[in-house]
Structures are given as structure tokens and as C-alpha cells.
Write a structure and sequence with these properties.
The complex is a heterodimer of chains A (531) and B (417). With 531 residues, chain A is an alpha+beta fold. Chain A has helices spanning 2-29, 31-48, 53-62, 64-97, 121-129, 175-182, 220-227, 276-282, 304-334, 355-370, 381-387, 390-424, 426-434, 439-466, 496-523, 526-530; strands at residues 103-108, 135-136, 139-140, 142-153, 164-172, 198-201, 211-219, 247-250, 253-261, 271-275, 290-294, 376-380, 472-477, 486-491. The longest helix of chain A has 35 residues, at 390-424. Chain A starts with a helix and ends with a helix. In chain B, the strands form 2 sheets. Chain B has a 6-stranded mixed β-barrel. Chain B has a two-stranded antiparallel ribbon with strand order 11-12. Classes of the chains: A alpha+beta (531), B alpha+beta (417). Chains A and B meet through α1, α4, β4, β5 and α12 of A and α2, β2, α9 and α10 of B. β4 (142-153) of chain A pairs antiparallel with β2 of chain B.
């Protein structure tokens, strides 16, 4: 008997689990599907159940301890899942909201990340002069940048703080222009970097010498992080972040904040901007790592259709080549011959959805194929940040794995409860059968009970997990291609997608966990039950 | 003994419930074991060691650290210039060489990240390889690979996953187009593999080959050195016997005028790893203080549920036991024993199974954090299974067991009557 039950459990869990996994994926892309399926299934069960709903509720109340404990298990599992999904969602939001659809990043040839890009000085002026770059009057809308990661020793006077941290500095030539190209304004009261990028501060303590300070504009996230280093932050939690006029130390020098960027929700939130002419030589990065340019409006608009055709033709060609190689590999294998030819990955391309994105795409294509004065790697800025989602995927896979395992645990828990409920109510089942209720009604009655416990516990869990919405967490985003990655401060995000997945998962666990016991209850004959 | 048999029989009486409770316990212990293995490894890697310390010398301010290779000659001696200065007992320099097989398109399938180093240092200084048992197959494979790297300057040892991704095999030759040393494209020959797990995605090459290519560049460009020629060493590892030696060697190096442009810093390897893990601080906090405790509480709740259902169903049985002379304490122990037996047995089976499955079959937990691609389950997991299974079973069953031992015979029989 036990073996049969185990086999049936495994089979059903696989079948129903596979079906629900598909639904969960759909729910993550379209929350309405998640909410709709959850609500729809409960409504269908209620409608199909001929046994009065009050019978179910009374039974849940009579066995309140079991109901409570089972529901509590669901609450814990679902609250945990919600927090984990909120973390991943926060990372997606961060990478998706970083970057302007009209912007193009120009990196050194072969580089896919700023950390490994070195652009030759000689090429910059020519790139800037290209028609592809948008202009404001005579001013090209192009930001010259040097991205540097700096090792910052942290003042050890605040307990619990790390000894060192990696600080992301962006050396810029014209911070106002950089802010404009990236679409990042300053908070009121701040100013952009001066031409000198440094200033004298009044003497401190016994010293009569003025302090030479370098000016910086910083993201809100890193301002909060640096603010925690201050010993007084321990006793004055209202000191939330460093602000204009505050200073901090790096490389044995004093850096003064002159502006705070309204950068929340982007990777720039964790950056410190300073004059490139100061930080470049100071940290041994003499060249530019990145040029960020705004694409010229309607650049090569008439060539979009031809470009699209060309891209699709390349994809079709790569697919045909791969198929051919597969065929020849199979033939070689059958003939027992060695076959090493490799088609390589099939290129992908997504058609730009907006006019701005199309402009950026055409400018990217121009710099990658038609611009011959130097070899560069141009990337649409939004695509670049999208590519940083690779690490998110890794976290998402880990979360899916943990969720599946926890869900299996939850399913066993609810099965235990429902099997116990049925064994305690065998006589009830007999009476219901004698009263004329069909086997199908008995099945739905117990299934509904299981789903109700899971949904109530799960919804409480999702509600508790939702409290994490807005929490900040430090993390790292990266392309996973040896690209280094960026240290970011993200905001946990609980949105409709996360809630939909939570609701649907609760339902799924209740359904899967209750199915076998309910089928068991359905199989009982009236006489057998009343014996 | 009789008591134990009674406990066993009670569990066997309701096989289905025992199975479901054990299965629930096993899956939850499985997750806890995975989480604790990752956290335990990272905690160990970031804990300062009192002896046999590895120090890392890096550029003081910039990440990634890039120092001139000329630093190596003095750094390997700990910048010792005076008789009273301490010299490290061993050393290893690292130069990171990254590139792809396709110069135009870099993908995860065609990139190579290699440590350029003195081949023999793989055997004495490389984390995770230095302590391979002398008779192990991995050690012998590594020794053979090191010998080939020393004989063949163009040789490369590839991690197993990387070799698979690149679709290469031992004996294959190919060109790596570098992205961090532009135009230093090296033709290499696969001469062996690196031991499994930690370096599955990495590669190792002879530093002489790389430095030779940097010199050749100068000759080919009318004496103009490569733009990265002064930045050809990323890290220097030094081995020192204890903390006072580390402090002194660190002072020797940091106070030496030889290392001023760029300035360098000396850290213990655990301190260096801690800095890298700082980016994952909140993620690890969540694993430690949210995920693991929530699973433990869930586990306790699942067991509590199963045991309390059982206790409620067996009120009459407990009353009969009392009539037969069982004391409340004995009933308490009986119920607790049932929970503990099921918790401990399933906990040990699960944790032990995880240890076998992850280490022997899966080759580690593939959860890349910082520069750790995979994590192994420590042998301690057997104890974790016992402790987690037993601990949560005890916590979850104590109240139901207490209820069971407080059963009033008269009330139960009155209900039955």
C-alpha cells in the first residue's frame, strides 16, 4: 500500500508540479494569469463542491491547532519566498531602470565591460565629431568617463563595519554633461564639479593649514552607505546619509561632496563621480574606459528596414549552419569518425520598441561596422545594463531551487494534515455518502479544505514577506562573462508579479498536498467508512 | 530496550504519517545543509588563521590590482633588506590573463581566464590544491600537468568545465585573443586539466610565456613597450609562519620605498576575501538570519503538527498506558522519543545523503560567489543532520508530548464511555 501511495505521490507531484511550474512562469511575466488562476481554481472548487462550505470551515475551526500549525508552515515558506523574490525583482528593476534608451556606450574593441576597457585618447575627438552623436548647439552630447574601482579603508571606530570596501569611482570631464547624458539630476542644494575639481576647506582642530579637498558628486545609495561609517551615526540614526558639504577619506585624501545624485533605482546610485583629470592619474587609469553618447535623432532612419532584414538574415544563416553541423556531426558519429567543427552561438536580436531605441541601435551599428578610424565596441546602454542581469539569473535559479525544495516540504506537511483529517472523519465521509453526495463531491470537499489552509497561510506569508518592500540591500550585478560586475545598492521590490507568484504557489502547494489524501477519501465506500 | 522497541512500533503503526514526517524533515534538512555548507566555507575562508598564514600583496588603492612584474623579485623575499628581516617561506605571483577564442564576440562559451604563474607553485601555494593528499589521483594529475607546463611554455591547464565549454581536449592548440592585454594573443596547447571543483572554470599558464610575449611586443613595435607592460602582476602571495611574522613582513613591504608607484598593501588572505565578500554582505545575512532560521522553524512546525495529530489520536492509548502503570514522565519520553527517532534518523539520512550526492555525484554546489564557483558539503554535515533533526524534533514535539503525559484517565474514559 505504502509503495503504491509513494509512486502515485511522485507521479502526481511531477505532473501537477510541471503544470503549475508552467503557470508560475506565466504568472511571473503576467500577474493577471497568477491571480486569475488562483481565484479561478478556488471559485471552481467552491462551485463544484456540493458539500456546504460551512462544513469545511467548521472542520477547520474544530481542528484549529492542526489548521494553525499547517497554515503557519505555509506562512513561513511563502514569506521567505516573497523576500527572496523581492530581492531578485529589485535587481531586475535596478538593471532595467539604469540606462537611457537613446544612449550608446562606446568601449574598447573586445571589451564588454567598463572595468576592462581602455580607449585610446587619439580616437575620442573624432568619435565626438561624428554625425551619429546628438548635439546641443555645438556641444556633442557625449560623456567621457573613466570607471575605476578603488579600495577604501574604512574607519574602524564604528563597530560592525567592514575594514575595507570597494568604492566605484567614475572620473568625468564635465559632470554636468555626464549628468545630462545619463538623465541624472542633483538634489536641491548641490552643485556639479567645478573646473578645478578641488577646493580648500578651512583648517580643522589644532592645524592652521587649510585642507585640500577633492570635489565629488555621489549617488544616494553610496551616500547612505558611507554615512554609516560615521561614529555619530550609531547614536543619531537620523543621520541617514552623507550630504553636500560632508567629507570622507580615500587614498589618504579628503573628498568633499558637492552634490548628491537623484540616482535611486539605477546602478549609478552606488557611484562616486570626480574629476577624471584628478582620479585618472591618482589611480593609474590614464585612458578613458567609456564614452557614453546620446544618439542623433532619426540617425539613418531610412536604413532601419534594411538593417532589420540583415540582422534576421544573419540569424537565419547561423541557424541553418548549426543545423547543417548537427547533421554532419550525427553522420560522423554514425561512421565512427571524429567531428570537431563548432557553429558557435546563434546571434540574437530584439527589435527596438521605441524610436529612441532605434536611433541608438543604428548608431551602435554604425560604430561597430562602418566607423573605420578605430575599432570600438558600441553597445546600446539599456542592452548593456540588461546584460548585467546574468548574476540575477544565477540568484533566481538558486531561489527557484530552494523554493521547490521548501515546497516539497510544505506539501508533505499538508499531506500529513489532510490524511489525519480524513482518518478522523471517516464516519463523516460515510454519512455524506449515505446522504447521496457523490465521490466527486467528497474529493472536492477535502481538496477545497487543503487549498483553503494553504491559501490562508500562504497569503499571510506573502503579506509578511511584502513588508520587505523598500528594504535596501547591497549586492553585485554582472554579465557573468568575466565582466567584473558592479557593486550596487538595490531596493527590494514586491510588485504584482511577486504577489501573483506567491498566491499561485500557495494554491499549488495546497492542491498538490491535498490531492492524494482527497483521492483516498473519495475511494472509501459508505459501508467501509461506517464500519 | 523495550521502550525503544515500543517507540519503533508506534512509528511503524502509522507508516504513512511517519513517512510523510520523515520526508518533510529530509527535504528541509537538505536545504539547511546546503545553506550551512556555503556559510561555513565562507566563514572559514574569512577567519584569521593563527599559523601558516598566507598574505596577499596587492596594489594599495586600485581594483583590479596591477603592479609591475619588477616588484616580484623583492616581494617574494618580503622586501627583506636587513639581517633581522623575515623572509616568507614560500611565494607565488599571479597575473590574470583573460581572453576569448573569438576576437570579435566574447561569450561565456569562448572565454578563458588563466592564472599566469610559476607552474610548480600550483603544488605548494594554490588554495585548494596545495593540500591535496600526496597519493590522490588529483595530486598525481596535477603533478603531471605542472611537469608539462614547465616543459612546454605554451602549455595551458584547463579546468574541466572550461575545457568542456571550449569544446577542447588535451593536445588541442588554439589562440587566446586577450581583452585585458590587448594584442597579446597567445597560442596555447592544452597539456592537462586542473583538479575538479574549485578551478573548474579557470586555467593556468606558465608566466614565462606571458612575459615573453610582452617582451616580444616591444621588439615588434620598434622598442615601444606594451601599454600594460608595467602592470603585469596582479597579486603576490606569501607564506609566513605566524601572526607576528605576518605583521613584520607586512611592515617590511609597506614601509619599503621600492613599492611606491604604485603603492602596495599587505593583507592576510582571509582579510582580502572578506573585502570581496562585502558585496554579498546582505545576501549572506539573509541566508544566515532569514533562510536558515525560517527553515528550522518550518521544520519544527511540520514535526509539531505530525506529533500533535498523533497525540490527539492516541488519547485513549495514553490513558490505558497510565492505567497499566506508566508514569507521566515515561509517556513524555515515549512521545518525545518517537519524534526524536524520526527527526534524528531522517536528519542524518538527509544530511549524509546530501554529503554523498553533492560531493560525489554533483561535484559541489554550483553557487558562484566572489571567486568560489562551487561549494562542497563538509563531513560535519552528518552532525548537522543529527542536531537539526533531533533539535527541531525536540522543540516541535515537546508541547504535544507534555499534553500526552498530562492526559487524565477519568476524562478520557468518560468520553469513551
Amino acid at each position: 500500500m505504502l509503495e503504491i501511495i509513494i509512486a502515485v505521490v511522485v507521479l502526481l507531484v511531477l505532473l501537477v508540479g510541471g503544470y503549475f511550474t508552467g503557470l508560475l512562469t506565466l504568472a511571473f511575466t503576467n500577474p493577471a494569469i497568477g491571480f486569475g488562476t488562483a481565484a479561478g481554481l478556488i471559485v471552481v472548487l467552491i462551485v463544484l463542491s456540493k458539500v456546504p462550505l460551512s462544513y469545511n470551515f467548521q472542520n477547520l475551526l474544530v481542528r484549529w491547532r492542526t489548521t494553525l500549525l499547517t497554515g503557519l508552515a505555509f506562512t513561513l515558506v511563502l514569506s521567505l519566498l516573497t523576500v527572496m523574490l523581492a530581492f531578485v525583482k529589485g535587481m531586475y528593476v535596478l538593471t532595467q531602470s539604469s540606462g537611457q534608451p537613446r544612449n550608446v556606450l562606446v568601449l574598447a574593441e573586445g571589451s564588454t565591460d567598463e572595468g576592462f576597457s581602455n580607449l585610446a585618447f587619439a580616437n575620442i575627438g573624432d568619435i565626438e565629431a561624428q554625425e551619429a552623436v546628438a548635439k546641443d548647439g555645438l556641444q556633442p552630447l557625449l560623456s567621457r568617463e573613466t570607471y575605476i574601482i578603488v579600495n577604501q579603508p574604512v574607519d574602524a571606530s564604528v563597530p560592525g563595519r567592514p575594514e575595507r570596501r570597494f568604492l566605484q569611482m567614475r572620473g568625468v570631464d564635465d559632470s554636468r554633461l555626464t549628468g545630462r547624458v545619463h538623465g541624472l539630476p542633483l538634489y536641491p542644494g548641490g552643485s556639479w564639479l567645478s573646473d578645478a575639481g578641488a577646493r580648500e576647506l578651512p583648517p580643522k582642530g589644532d592645524s592652521k593649514e587649510p585642507i585640500n579637498a577633492y570635489e565629488v558628486v555621489i549617488g544616494e545609495g553610496i551616500a547612505r552607505e558611507l554615512g554609516k561609517d560615521r561614529p555619530e551615526a550609531m547614536s543619531q540614526p537620523q543621520l541617514k546619509r552623507l550630504d553636500v558639504g560632508d567629507t570622507f577619506n580615500v587614498n589618504g585624501r579628503v573628498w568633499m561632496i558637492v552634490g548628491v545624485l537623484k540616482s535611486e533605482g539605477s546602478t549609478f546610485d552606488s557611484e562616486v563621480w570626480a574629476k577624471r583629470s584628478i582620479v585618472g592619474p591618482m589611480f593609474g587609469s590614464e585612458s578613458y574606459s567609456t564614452l557614453v553618447l546620446q544618439a542623433s535623432k532619426d540617425f539613418r532612419r531610412d536604413q532601419r528596414a534594411a538593417y532589420k532584414e540583415e540582422r534576421l538574415a544573419k540569424i537565419a544563416e547561423a541557424i541553418a549552419k548549426t543545423e547543417d553541423i548537427k547533421k554532419r556531426a550525427a553522420q560522423a558519429k554514425a561512421a565512427g569518425k571524429e567531428f570537431t567543427e563548432d557553429a558557435g552561438p546563434i546571434p540574437t536580436w530584439t527589435e527596438p520598441k521605441s524610436n529612441d531605441h532605434w536611433d541608438a541601435e543604428m548608431v551602435k551599428a554604425y560604430f561597430n561596422t562602418d566607423y573605420k578610424k578605430s575599432s570600438v565596441n558600441a553597445i546600446v546602454e539599456t542592452d548593456y545594463f540588461e546584460s548585467l542581469n546574468q548574476l540575477n539569473l544565477q540568484f533566481l535559479y538558486a531561489i527557484v531551487f530552494v523554493t521547490i525544495i521548501l515546497s516539497v516540504g510544505g506539501v508533505f506537511g499538508v499531506m500529513n494534515t489532510m490524511f489525519a483529517a480524513i482518518s478522523q472523519r471517516i464516519k463523516d465521509i460515510g454519512v455524506l455518502r449515505l446522504l447521496g453526495y457523490r465521490r466527486r463531491s467528497i474529493l472536492i470537499c477535502f481538496l477545497l479544505e487543503s487549498v483553503l489552509i494553504a491559501m490562508i497561510g500562504g497569503l499571510v506569508g506573502v503579506g509578511l514577506g511584502s513588508l520587505s518592500d523598500g528594504w535596501t540591500a547591497s549586492s553585485i550585478v554582472g554579465s557573468g562573462q568575466g565582466g567584473g560586475g558592479k557593486f550596487v545598492v538595490l531596493r527590494l521590490t514586491v510588485d504584482a508579479q511577486v504577489l501573483a507568484v506567491g498566491c499561485l504557489l500557495s494554491l499549488m502547494l495546497g492542491f498538490v498536498g491535498g490531492l492524494i489524501p482527497s483521492l483516498n477519501a473519495m475511494r472509501l465506500s459508505a459501508l467501509e467508512a461506517l464500519r | 530496550m523495550k521502550f525503544l522497541r515500543l517507540i519503533y512500533q508506534n512509528l511503524w503503526r502509522n507508516k504513512l504519517r511517519s513517512f510523510l514526517t520523515a520526508a518533510g524533515t529530509m527535504v528541509l534538512v537538505f536545504v539547511v545543509t546546503l545553506v550551512w555548507s556555503i556559510l561555513g566555507f565562507l566563514a572559514n575562508a574569512t577567519t584569521e588563521k593563527p599559523a601558516n598564514i598566507k598574505a596577499i600583496v596587492t596594489e594599495r588603492w586600485r581594483i583590479p590590482s596591477m603592479m609591475p612584474y619588477a616588484y616580484a623579485a623583492s616581494l617574494k623575499d618580503g622586501a627583506a633588506t636587513e639581517p633581522e628581516h623575515i623572509k616568507p617561506s614560500d611565494h607565488m605571483s599571479w597575473t590574470f590573463y583573460g581572453g576569448s577564442l573569438d576576437p570579435k564576440k566574447r561569450t561565456f562559451e569562448n572565454i578563458v581566464f588563466a592564472f599566469c604563474l610559476e607552474p610548480k607553485k600550483l603544488l605548494t601555494m594554490m588554495d585548494g590544491l596545495e593540500d591535496l593528499p600526496p597519493d590522490s589521483a588529483d595530486r598525481k594529475t596535477l603533478e603531471a600537468g605542472v611537469a608539462k607546463l614547465e616543459q612546454n611554455r605554451q602549455g595551458i591547464l584547463l579546468g574541466r568545465d572550461r575545457m568542456e565549454r571550449l569544446k577542447k581536449k588535451i593536445g588541442d592548440r588554439f589562440i587566446i585573443h586577450s581583452f585585458n592585454y590587448k594584442e597579446i594573443n597567445l597560442e596555447v596547447e592544452v597539456v592537462g586539466t586542473l583538479p575538479a571543483r574549485r578551478y573548474d572554470q579557470s586555467a593556468a599558464m606558465n608566466i614565462d610565456y606571458f612575459l615573453g610575449a610582452i617582451d616580444a611586443y616591444k621588439q615588434q613595435h620598434n622598442g615601444k613597450a606594451h601599454e600594460m607592460a608595467g602592470k603585469t602582476m596582479n597579486l603576490m602571495w606569501l607564506r609566513v609562519p605566524d601572526t607576528p611574522s605576518f605583521t613584520q613582513v607586512a611592515a617590511q613591504i609597506q614601509e619599503s620605498p621600492q613599492f611606491s608607484l604604485p603603492a602596495v598593501k599587505v593583507q592576510t588572505s582571509s582579510s582580502g576575501i572578506s573585502t570581496f565578500l562585502e558585496a554579498y554582505r546582505d545576501l549572506l545575512w539573509g541566508m544566515r538570519w532569514l533562510l536558515a532560521p525560517a527553515i528550522l522553524v518550518t521544520l519544527a512546525v511540520v514535526i509539531a503538527n505530525a506529533i500533535s495529530i498523533s497525540v490527539r489520536e492516541r488519547q485513549t492509548e495514553f490513558a490505558v498506558l497510565k492505567v497499566l502503570g506508566f508514569r507521566p514522565g515515561q509517556i513524555l519520553v515515549l512521545v518525545l522519543g518517537e519524534a526524536l527517532l524520526i527527526g534524528i534518523a531522517s536528519g542524518v539520512v538527509s544530511a549524509g545523503g546530501t554529503w554523498l550526492l553533492v560531493n560525489q555525484v554533483a561535484g559541489g554546489i554550483p553557487f558562484p560567489i566572489a571567486f568560489f564557483p562551487k561549494f562542497l558539503i563538509p563531513a560535519d554535515a552528518w552532525w548537522w543532520g543529527l542536531a537539526v533533526g533531533g533539535g527541531t524534533a525536540f522543540l516541535g514535539s515537546f508541547i504535544p508530548a507534555w499534553t500526552a503525559c498530562r492526559v487524565k484517565v477519568s476524562e478520557v474514559f468518560a468520553r469513551v464511555g
